[in-house]
Design a protein that fits this description.
The chain has 391 residues and is an alpha+beta fold. It is built from 11 helices and 11 strands. Strands 1, 2, 3, 4, 5 and 6 form a 6-stranded antiparallel sheet that branches. A 3-stranded antiparallel sheet has the order 7-9-10, covered by helices on one side. A hairpin with a 2-residue loop joins β5 (134-138) and β6. The chain is globular, with a radius of gyration of 21 Å. The protein starts with 37 loop residues before the first helix and ends in a 13-residue tail after the last helix.
Length: 391
Amino acid sequence: MHVENPERLAGITPQTTRRRTSLHPGRTCYNRAMTLPAALFGFDPPDLAVDHVLAITAQHWAFTGRPQRLRGERSHNTLITSADGVARILQVQSASEDATVIDLQTRAMRHLERHAPDVPVSRVIPTLAGELHAEVEIDGRAHLARLVSFLPGTTFDPTATLPVIAYLRIGALIGRIARGLATFDHPAATHFMPWDVANGLIVDDTLRTDLTDSSACALDSVDERLHAAVETMRSLRRRTIHNDGHAGNLVRPDRTSHQVSGVIDFGDLVRTVISADVAIIAESFAPDHPDPAAVVAAVTAGYHAEVPLDEDEIGSIPELVLARTALNVLLAEYQIHHAPHLAPHAAANLPDVIERLMRWSRLDTGAMIARVHEAIASSPDTPPDEQDAAP
């Protein structure tokens, strides 16, 4: 396998053979590989009845109210609004998720609360016993539960065209999180995270089994570039980053606003290449934009104002966007087959993700990098002020 930290895949036998080159147009020829277990990815959150959710928050936090189920990939999430309007989110984690990884996420949020209190992210609410998590038993399995504050507003639409300043400010906010986490350390920071673009899954046979023809052909067409991206990432700087700044995790006051007012979801937190933070934002907003390079340039310039990027990191961003999109294709296919609660959403989105991958593969990356350098050179020395963003 080409996974960077193979020791994280305990109990899985590596495939030593590489993908064979297709000799026929329109056909791919992959060696069959062992299917990765759903438990490795944690795509198996518990299914709780509403009464059970409210019993958990009442027992451990003396908090109850009107529940609203929220979508979750690796946790069961419920928004609970009390009678006096206080909103909290209960996150009951997958039993497959390592407790140290859950602690990593929680400690990162607490670190930001202490060292970067102006960064708008959720706050962890301790239990009545003063603990950061509550342990609950569901169907004979132990799960950790966490209660966090709710950030009001709505998330962004990745297909909408925003003003350049909006992308600049989004990049800056994700950069502020990275800057706030610069002094954060945790023993689980290097854990295996499926959404880590640098983990090697994009070039590994294990997720190439039983792909649809459209996914297999799209991935085959960019395979050499994906291998090159993995090699490039080996030499890039790393730190613990949010790693999930896509449109669905970026909050704005309302649907008419371009002002980013918060960032949610620390579930993909991991120590990885710094420039992945930028690539994830760009992958979310740029492919559907009339001028993708303008989005990449603005996002990068905003992030760079908070966390200066070196030449190699800036140059890697277009190919990391390609890699992130390819990872989206692979994990969507995996979710369709192995994560029933995610399968409908993944199946509905897969054709668009494939199309985005192909569109991105045709862009002039050299010209895009030049646009990024121009944006950085023309940006003010101080980070953008979130308070006067265009409405």
